[in-house]
């Protein structure tokens, strides 16, 4: 396993690897790796012959009052995991290598970014699109892997790939959950043991939504019931949003007729947790 | 010479060509080709083994009251020229092929775009960066060629290539002028024979600036003299801007100490003409 911090060196290796006929699988991450990331890596190992993982806590996707500074970083442990998974190359740049002093070019998706997390975190997806476009140009993957937990991110990246004609495929893998249902997230490390129990309310609310959609209930009723459940199970929580949206446009659905995405973001203490579920009527 | 209108087919050819070891030279154009474009093609023919020219009048780089509709289009003549120059592939997409209905991703440079033409044509360079990023991802050139006549465009594209880690080189070629000094431009076709004479005032103003810089005059004096010359030689003209700027930052220079860029945009009738000159003190 190669570990590189330098863009040019990554490019050299990738050129070599591509010349010899390898296909490149790529998983961009912010480190603090968990089973969710590992599921992406395992899939990449199946589909491609050279697997690259980037670890970079990207400052441009954090708002000024968000958790950029305290976001968990543990390169030593991450490296151990990636070695065990048989990853071929870790790209682990520092901020200066990715953003020069004169950096002034951004990639922005302006339609799908208006909703859900995009509405609550202005500039977040602009930061995400910019860093992912950069990483795609450096790593030149044949397939890049994203998790469904960041559902909106995945559809925005897919949109960017189509719009800007990137020559690669995006593969989105299912949410990985703890046994009790909590969606894996690097931010779960922020939770105290009490908050950890409260955090389960996100999954419980989604399961409730699942039952209610199947029982032909409509969004206003479902959302109210979800809010009530969360307030009960996690009294100290703060609901950032709960939305029932079209899985393609991310716009609110008034009347459920086909498949919907139920998505929510909840503050449990200082941790802002997100989760979602695709539900077919 | 191959002519393709379809993105996927271009990609297929480029992949084939790269596999056999060719290097790709690329000249993005809006057609209405002239000796300026041809100088870029000739350079590409020297440096690379497979030369691609795109012809696409890009709607997103025109403002709502600009000349998108009447911009000169003459594919038949352009094709003849490109054949004679030994171009290997023309990419000639239509608007739908480049901008799907759901298109919503843009590339924007936000620092260098604040000045000169960027100030006068809001959104112009966002349109340019977006289409050029798309074309780079489709054509995957080793070297892309731009003309110095669009000086600001060239430095912004260079910035974008660095910032977004495109794996290619940008080569900027000198302005090609008519015998009397008028910079070649597709928009020169808009000029009546009277306006054609008035249009020469741009070059004369730049030559005046050249002499004045060499004579240690400073920007306010030089710009006033240029304005006076233009008003005299082209009484019906309208000055859009005349600036003396740092060639790297594009910011106004107060006191000339090293090399400067003198840049101007002038309306001659309905034609907005631009020209520039790099002048060393």
Walk me through this protein's architecture.
The structure is a homodimer of 281-residue chains. Chain A is built from 9 helices and 10 strands. The first copy, chain A, is of the alpha/beta class. In chain A, the strands form 2 sheets. In chain A, strands 1-4-3-2-6-7 form a 6-stranded parallel beta sheet, with helices on both faces. In chain A, strand 9 (260-268) and strand 10 form a beta hairpin. In chain A, helix 8 (193-214) packs antiparallel against helix 9 (219-233).
Features:
six-stranded parallel beta sheet; 281 residues; three-stranded antiparallel beta sheet; homodimer; alpha/beta; Pantoate--beta-alanine Ligase, Chain: A,domain 2; Rossmann fold
Mean pLDDT of chain A comes to 98
Oligomeric state as shown? homodimer
Based on CA inertia axes, which overall geometry of chain A fits? globular
- Strand fraction of chain A: 15-25%
